[in-house]
Amino acid sequence: MPDTEPKQPRRALDGVRVLALETSLSGPHATKILADMGAEVIKLERPGSGDVIRGWDTAVNGLSSGIVWIGPNKKSFAIDVKKPAAREILQRLATRVDVVLENFAPGAAARMGLGAEELRKANPRLIYCSLSGYGQDGPYRDKKAYDALIQGEAGLIMTTGFEDRPARVGVSVTDLISSMYAAVGILTALYQRTQTGEGQVVDISMFETAASWLGYFPHHYWHRGEEPKRYGLRHQYITPYGHYLASDGKYFGLAVASPADWEIFCTGVIERPDLLTDPRFKDTPARRANREELDEILIAIFLAQPTEEWLKRLDKVRLPHGQVNGVADVLAHPQMQARGMIQEIDSPVGRIPVLASPLHLSDSPQRLDPMPALGGDTESILRDLDYSDAELATLRKDGVF
User: Fold this and answer.
1) Does a structural domain hold residue 204?
2) Which of 324, 350, 365 is the last residue of a domain?
3) N or C: which terminal CB in the chain sees fewer CB atoms within 10 Å?
4) Are residues 105 and 203 in the same domain?
5) What total number of domains does the chain contain?
6) In CATH, what number is assigned to the domain containing residue 104?
7) In terms of DSSP bridges, do strands 342-345 and 161-162 run parallel, antiparallel, or are they unpaired?
8) With DSSP H G I counted as helix, E B as strand and the rest as coil, what are the percentages for the chain, rounded to 5?
């Protein structure tokens, strides 16, 4: 008889298995990217308490908002790595996966017998990714790293905020930057493996990845000796470009990035064609040199009309513009709705909303599996590793899981 069962669409990373020796945010977010695209991610957790991120809050009907963010689409594998038997289990599992990602302190995985050298000796095709604060060598190797601290060390804080006071970026941006580079590194190594048949080690640091996002600032320092100034809601080098307060007490954003845009802005938006012939504002370098004077003029103009009016004018002449939204506004945003970015999944506390992956691949649907319970996949993973009922009973008796 012909097969009438509907075929499941293939995802980009179907067949890729990942052992995630992860904690907190950077490592878990990296493997979330892989899991969303179809990889089987086996997340190591502590029996009883789980990943430290599970204890951050109880916002989601008793679950941590953090674990609901980075936990779906993974398998929760809860064993006590302090037990020798648990380490043997993980070593066996590492022979049957494509990728191991760890974001422990440098050297910690190796001390548990789970380092790159040992695991790759048993599985030469293994891609082993280490994600840490400062990398696996260098004088800062063993310094403890948290997002806000790395934002400072890597120079991001001194580019953010106002002239009289710097500020950290509101989200844990260095965790997220490093997690994205880790995912890219793993995918790159997987592709190279198709050419060579061999795995390799990927070494990612929060510090270096954050520093790589300094963009054009290092070039201004190398060639002009300039440290970037902080301009709050404005751009450092292009003006006007940023966010302004309107008469209704709301902010809106705009960008004037070319000579043609400047002419359109002066004539079609603020109705000040006289500024086009003012030598202080004739081009981008002049406007940058006289930004305080220009800003004073624009602040007064924008305070004369409500946000809606300015957005309508900017939209009419098709200059880049945008609202300044709170979280509620973003979640209700029509583009979020149209693109299906808010989905619901099953969890141990019932159906819950989550943000879908922003990766849209035409022939690779996203994974939207239930949120796993802590340790919910432990026994099935052990059985898949060929542990017998008797061995499972012993492991359970010894407190391994």
Assistant:
1) yes
2) 324
3) N
4) yes
5) 2
6) 3.40.50.10540
7) unpaired
8) 40, 15, 45
3-state SS assignment for residue 61: coil
Say if residues 164 and 231 touch (Cβ distance below 8 Å).
no
Structural domain includes residue 225: no
Question: Is residue 278 within 8 Å of residue 288, measured between CB atoms?
Answer: no
How is residue 195 written in tokens?
A: 């050419």
Q: Which residues are catalytic?
A: 175
Provide the residue type at 260 as one letter: A
Phi, psi of 14, deg, nearest 5: -55, 135
Q: Are residues 189 and 246 in the same domain?
A: no
- Which residue in this structure is represented by tokens 């940058």? 288
State both tokens at 26: 């950077």
User: Cα–Cα distance between 49 and 298 in angstroms, integer?
Assistant: 54
Q: Are 68 and 352 in contact, with CB atoms under 8 Å apart?
A: yes
Residue 320 in tokens: 């880049």
User: 218-256: per-residue pLDDT in tens?
Assistant: 999 999 999 999 999 999 999 999 999 999 999 999 999
- Kindly report, residue by residue over 148-174, the tens digit of the pLDDT: 999 999 999 999 999 999 999 999 999
Domain that includes residue 135, residue range: 17-213+338-397
